[in-house]
UniProtKB/TrEMBL annotation:
Substrates-to-products reaction catalysed: DNA(n) + a 2'-deoxyribonucleoside 5'-triphosphate = DNA(n+1) + diphosphate
Main EC class the enzyme belongs to: transferase
Protein name in the entry: DNA polymerase III subunit delta'
Keyword Transferase on entry: yes
InterPro entries named in the record: DNA_pol_III_delta_C, DNA_Rep/Repair_Clamp_Loader, P-loop_NTPase
PANTHER family named among the record's database cross-references: DNA POLYMERASE III SUBUNIT DELTA, REPLICATION FACTOR C / DNA POLYMERASE III GAMMA-TAU SUBUNIT
Pfam families hit by this protein: DNA_pol3_delta2, DNApol3-delta_C
Sequence ranges assigned to domain DNA polymerase III delta subunit C-terminal in this UniProt record: 309-381
GO BP: any one term: DNA-templated DNA replication
Record key words, sorted: DNA replication, DNA-directed DNA polymerase, Nucleotidyltransferase, Transferase
EC number in record: 2.7.7.7
Length: 389
């Protein structure tokens, strides 16, 4: 078993990274053209960007090129390797101070391995000013430091950074590949794994959640039913409010348990017994944790709303396929009767207009428009389409 074994449907990208790590492993003194000091892994959400980045990091830090079993590979998997630094933001943006700290650590020589590897997940969440701080490190990199950035696309980074990295693009894995991974890794039956992979549209993380969390699967099913049952403006407004509630509940389910564990860990580290009041001189640390958790909750809610919009897009994509006479490969095949009724109730032009409205709603929410207003505008547009038909 190697560090590459759990990566699904990305053989071309794996070959690029494996060639780079093996070329460097073969000769620690020569600089093969396959290896460079800065990389950019791009691909749609759920394609495995960060997993591939850490697999590459393990192959560079492992003495055997990523065996998957040694202490180096185990430490990379646990994110505890002394020569690995990672930045995983749980907020809306990556702060400039976080990047400055990484740039400073990049100047140190490796402690035990051939390289010091720095991974930045969600590099697209850097503002331009923050990106310029990173740019200076990429322009004059230390000899044994490797940067690995992850982003949805090259266009999400400023041009000067794009010109200084080697880009590796990932593709969307097939439903079959994702289902096979979920079935083998999570121990679910093949039918559940296939349904989760299909509903997640090959998003590996979301497929895992839908296959192992019945509440998450139930929330998605309710979202689809709400979209298919919207017929009037009043129903659209009520459905928008309910979808906001669903996204909020989903975000709470993800963050609440973790928040409680973090607070308990902080209290223990400060020597505060359960039920005791926090001393005045330590309240700033608790307050700092609470502020960090609030920022994470904001991002979780946005992510939840975006997942709902992606699910809505899958519904109208199925409706459009039926209208065009393409009846295979429906994402929401469990709702085929309702989908056919929706397809018969509107022309395909209205379906396309609704899909464009979904894309506009995603842009509006990303631009800090109130989610309730964006969702209401979207669903009212969908209801008008059905009424006009």
């Amino acid at each position: 078993m190697t560090v590459w074994d759990d990566l699904v449907g990305q053989q071309e990208a794996i070959d690029v990274f494996r060639a780079a790590s093996l070329a460097e492993l073969a000769s620690s003194t020569s600089h093969d053209s396959a290896m460079t000091h800065s990389w950019l892994v791009t691909g749609p959400p759920g394609s495995g960007r960060s997993n591939l980045a850490y697999a590459f990091a393990a192959s560079l830090l492992c003495r055997e090129g990523g065996c998957g079993n040694c202490s180096d590979c185990t430490q990379v998997a646990a994110r505890t390797h002394p020569d690995l630094s990672s930045l995983t933001t749980e907020r809306v943006i990556i702060s400039i101070d976080e990047v400055r700290a990484l740039v400073q650590s990049s100047q140190y020589s490796p402690a035990v391995s051939r390289y010091r590897v720095i991974v930045i997940e969600d590099a697209d969440r850097m503002a331009e000013r923050t990106s310029n701080v990173l740019l200076k490190a990429l322009e004059e990199p230390p000899e044994r430091t490797v940067w690995i950035l992850c982003a949805p696309s090259e266009a999400d980074l400023i041009p000067t950074i794009r010109s200084r990295v080697r880009s590796v693009r990932l593709r969307v894995p097939s439903v079959e590949d994702v289902a096979a991974l979920i079935a083998s890794r999570d121990g679910v039956d093949a039918h559940t794994a296939e349904r989760a992979a299909r509903h997640a549209q090959s998003h590996i993380g979301m497929a895992h959640r839908l296959a192992t969390n019945p509440e998450a699967a139930a929330r998605r099913e309710e979202t689809v039913r709400l979209a298919l049952n919207v017929m009037t403006v009043r129903e659209a407004v009520l459905a928008a409010a309910r979808m906001i509630e669903i996204a909020t509940d989903d975000a709470k389910a993800i963050t609440e348990e973790r928040d409680a564990q973090e607070l308990e860990h902080l209290r223990k580290s400060m020597g505060i017994a359960e039920g005791d009041a926090v001393p005045a001189n330590l309240r700033s640390q608790v307050k700092g944790l609470e502020e960090q958790q609030k920022r994470r909750a904001t991002r979780s809610l946005r992510d939840g709303l975006d997942r709902i919009l992606v699910d809505l897009l899958s519904v109208y994509r199925d409706v459009l396929r039926i209208q065009l006479g393409v009846n295979e490969d429906l994402i929401n095949v469990e709702f085929e009767t309702e989908l056919r009724a929706a397809a018969a109730a509107r022309p395909s032009e209205d379906t396309l207009a609704t899909m464009e409205a979904i894309a506009q709603a995603r842009e509006r929410i990303d631009s800090n428009v109130a989610p309730a207003l964006a969702m209401e505008a979207l669903l009212i547009r969908a209801s008008r389409s059905e009424v006009s038909a």
